[in-house]
Amino acid sequence: MAQVTGEGEHLLSGARARRIAEQRLREEITRGLVVPGQRLVEPELGERYGVTRNSARLALDALITERLVERIPNRGARVRVVPTSEAVAIAECRQVLDGLLARKAAQNATDGQIDRLHANLERMQRAVADQELLEYSRLTQEHHRLLTESARQTMASALVQRLQGQIGRHEFRLLLRPGRPQQSLAELTRVVDAIAERRANSAESAARAHLQAVIDALLLESAGE
Asked: What domains are defined for the chain?
């Protein structure tokens, strides 16, 4: 459904519009295009995403539930600041869930899903070689999407999706460290290789090791604050 404004512009409304605004804003927060503490004004968001103000408000409500956004009394909504200590706690939860999803993917992935994981991994390798960190960050999100799709464990997948957005910006900042993109790529390569070889224990261990590296880097960052 579309709503026509007084100026003749067509703005999307309804459930689809809310999903579009929610997804776009979540991606912008994760990639650091909107920063912690930045105000989020409903009419501005609606104009940016081509949706009605009400759809933008509903998208904000959804991201408040995910703890990506918060409302401050008399000041409106803003991107929630996730301290490093909280990011560590989230990564510790993700470590268990990602391990489970990798194990399930090794057990349940179809040959086609494994092919897509490998194809995405090749794109990740090119992004690292070309030092395209934004693209690499996007592809790691695609890796996690493909992994959860392959795992067929809907509860763990839903929990990971909610947690991922909260530490996505921290993870992207870690990629700016010299050598971290190469290390991350090697870790995720081991995950995909184990899934492809149907080695469930190894897949779980590799996924947990990847998150442990994130945790260690966050703890080092926290010690320097």
From this structure: 2-79 (1.10.10.10), 84-223 (1.20.120.530)
- Where does the pLDDT of residue 9 fall: very low under 50, low under 70, confident under 90, or very high at 90 and above? low
CB 140, CB 54: distance < 8 Å: no
Q: Mean pLDDT for the chain? A: 90
* pTM confidence score: 0.77
d(CA 195, CA 169) in angstroms, rounded, equals 27
What φ, ψ does residue 79 adopt, rounded to 5°? -70, 125
- Residue 62 CA to residue 20 CA, distance in Å, equals 12
**CB-hemisphere CA count at 13 Å for 181?**
22
- Tell me the C-alpha distance between 25 and 33, whole Å: 9
The string of pLDDT tens digits covering residues 165-183 is: 778 778 888 888 999 999 9
pLDDT for 6: 41
Residues 87, 167 contacting (CB under 8 angstroms): yes
